[in-house]
């Protein structure tokens, strides 16, 4: 009887040890989270980012089309204006400007309407009209510059929220494991990356529009000087 007891005892202890080992080595269940799950969890950061990115894209497309219309190539426009003025056909010159529908044409039309006054008054009227047209072309471009500034700040705000989430999860679960801090890290990294991407995109949009508007303004200034030269030239 004693012999049977000692023979069975190691087996029982070994069985318990095996069960304990099996319990120890079993890895904890890992919950896989997709990108969509992370976007849903960090909606309070990603929705504002989505809104400002849509606004930036919309303004960029709308202003690009407006600047393209303003930069319409009119090779013979100033030559015809010169011909009409020298021939005294001011009505024809005004009709040509009204049918063009470009900032340059509106600026020249304002100057033609002032013919008969001093050159200084005409020049001032042309410059004022040019400033108004410039303001129209630059409409809402500053919003893109603002988005380029605040997008990285929103990303940083998401980083702060991610760190808060990490400490909250650690406090709730009482352990410092990768599964505990994963949610906060995902929010932190996703928001930082999204903020930087949107900021760079808006910065490129802004500089592209500013460059294109600058080219149109330079063309307007050149033709404004040419228009004043036409008025000062003696007619035969």
Summed up, what is this model?
With 236 residues, the chain is mainly alpha-helical.
Plain-language structure description:
By secondary structure, the protein is an all-alpha fold. The chain has one domain (30-65, 73-232). Helices cover 84% and strands 0% of the residues. The chain has nine helices and no strands. Helix 4 (77-86) runs antiparallel to helix 5, helix 4 (77-86) packs parallel to helix 9 and helix 8 (141-173) packs antiparallel against helix 9. It is rod-shaped and about 90 Å long.
Question: What keywords describe this structure?
Answer:
single chain, 236 residues, mainly alpha, 9 helices, disordered N terminus
Shape: rod-shaped
The helix/strand series, from N terminus to C terminus, equals: HHHHHHHHH
Q: In percent terms, what proportion of residues is strand?
A: under 5%
**SS field, number of helical segments:** 9
The count of domains is: 1
Beta-strand segment tally = 0
- Cα(first) to Cα(last) distance is 140 Å
Q: Quickly give the structural class.
A: mainly alpha
* Helix content estimate: over 70%
For the largest beta-sheet, the strand count, sense and barrel status come to: none
Provide the low-confidence segments as ranges: 1-31
Mean pLDDT: 78
In terms of quaternary structure, what is this?
single chain
Work out the radius of gyration: 36 Å
Strands, helices and their partners?
Elements: H1 2-25, H2 35-41, H3 43-70, H4 77-86, H5 90-100, H6 103-113, H7 119-137, H8 141-173, H9 178-232
